[in-house]
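Practice problem: DUF4861 domain-containing protein
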Amino acid sequence: MRKILFLSLFSIVGFSCTEKKEVQIAIQNDSSFDRSNEIVEVAMSSVTEKLQLNDTATFIIIDAQGQQVPYQITYDGKIIFPANVKANMESEYVIKPGTPEQFPTMTTGKQYPERVDDIAWENDKIAFRTYGPALQATGERAFGYDIWVKSVSDLVVEDRYAGELNPETKAKIAELKKTDSKAADELYKSVSYHVDHGNGLDCYKVGPTLGGGTAALMVNDSIIYPYCYKSFEILDNGPLRFTVKLEYNPLTVKGDSNIVETRIISLDAGTQLNKTTVSYSNLKENTPIVAGIVLHEPADVCRYVASADKGYIGYADPTDNVNNNNGIIYVGAVFPQALNDAKPVFYSEKEKTNERGGADGQLLAISEYTPDSDFVYYWGAGWSKYGFDTPESWFSYLEEAAAAIQQPLSVTLVK
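Answer key — C-alpha cells:
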C-alpha cells in the first residue's frame, strides 16, 4: 500500500515556532448512533489564523489518546481528517506543531486514456469509474457510473488496468487465438479485471442507463441522458479524499441546446458513497431531476427500497454473470434535500430489448432542479463479499447514512 508523509502541501503554510501553540477541536455527535472514522472538515484559514502559521513548519493532529491521525488539505481550503465520536457524545482533537507520521493512502484516482479515457477511482471499500470522450467516439452507449467491487482495503484499480491492458499480453492473446483458442482464453482470464483474482472484479453492467447512481434532467417523464464527460480536472487525489470535476457536452432541454452540466464528485476514505454536486448552466426554469440505479431483474424478483420520506434508494444487483459466483452488488443513493418521489420504473419489452441493452428498468429518486443552484446527493455501492451479508444490511447502511447527512457532526474550534 502506498505511503505518504503529508509534507508536500505544507511548504505553503507552517507554524511560527517562537511560541508553542495548539488548536483544540471539539466534535459533537448529536445522533443516536456512533460515528466511526467519519471524515470531518475544518477551514484551513481558521487554523492558520489561530496558530499564526508561517511557510516553513509542519503540523500534526492528535486524538484524545494522544495518537496521530491522518489528514489532508483539500483543493477548497479545508483540513480533513477521520473522527470517531460515540452517540450523543463529544470527542476532542488537537492540532499542533510536529512531524506527521506515515499513513497509507486510502483514496486515489486517475484518467486512463489507454482504456478509452476512463476515469476510475477508489477508496478502501469500493471502486468506480465513469466513461470518457474516446468511448463516446466509438458509438458505445454507456451513460451511467460503473462499479468495481473489491474485497481488500488495498488500492487495486491501477494494477487491474495494468493487467488487462498490458500490450505484450494482449499481443500474445491475439497470437494464441490463431492456434489455440483455449490457451488464449485462459491467458485472458488470468489478467482480466472481469475475473476475481482475490481482491474483487468488474462484474457490473451499465449500458445505456443511469448505471450506479447518475443524475439527469427529466422533461415530460423522459430522461435526458448525459453521455460521456467532455473534460475533467482532478482536484484532490488522496490520501483521504479524491475529487474530480467533470464537464459535459451541451444538452438540449426544452428546445434549448446550450445546457451544460458540471459535476464535482468526491470519495472519502472509509465510506461506500460518493458526494456529488451537479449544476447546469443556461437552464432558465425549474426542471425535474432524477438520480437512478439500473435494475437488472423483473419486478417480481427485484430486491430494492425506495423511500422519498427518508431520502434514499437502494438495490441488490445480481451482477452481470449470476452463475459465476460473483455475489451481489449493492447499489444506493442518498439525498439531503426533499424528494418528490422515489420509485422503480420498469421498461416495456420493446424498450428493454431495443433501447436499454436488456436492462429491466431503473430505480429513480425524483427531485426539482432550480436554475443556478447545486443539486447535491450521495451515491455508491457495496459487495456481498466485503462487508454486507444481506440486502437488509445494505439498506440499513443507506438509512443510517441518510440520517447522518441530515444530522452532521458539529465541528468547533475551541481555542
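Discussion: The longest strand covers residues 256-268. Students who identified this feature from the C-alpha cells alone can consider the problem solved.
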